[in-house]
Input
Amino acid sequence: MSANPYDKAHELARSILNHETFKNYVQAKNNLEQKPDCRDKVLEFRNRQLAFNRAQITGGKIAEEEVRQLSVDFAKLNQEKDIAAFFDAEAKFIQMFNDIQEIIRQPLDRVLAK
Output
């Protein structure tokens, strides 16, 4: 008898919630929320980043100055301890999540490619 994929998905979700990487991300996010000035800086940066990404996806014109300025601003934000901790924890969580998606996707792709 094979395992129920829905049960395994719930088990995976619980495992993620209990994983240190996710707990660190939640803690860093909560720390950032406690400091409105830091939170607002991150939100403003993310809004600019989102607009930039939208322009890339839609084939819009992107000024080199905007690319440079986003990089400079990201570096400046990373000089603030709480923001850097948030970005680091977020990146590690995203990497873990992407790795999990890849682990799930690969065997499916192999079967579908036949």
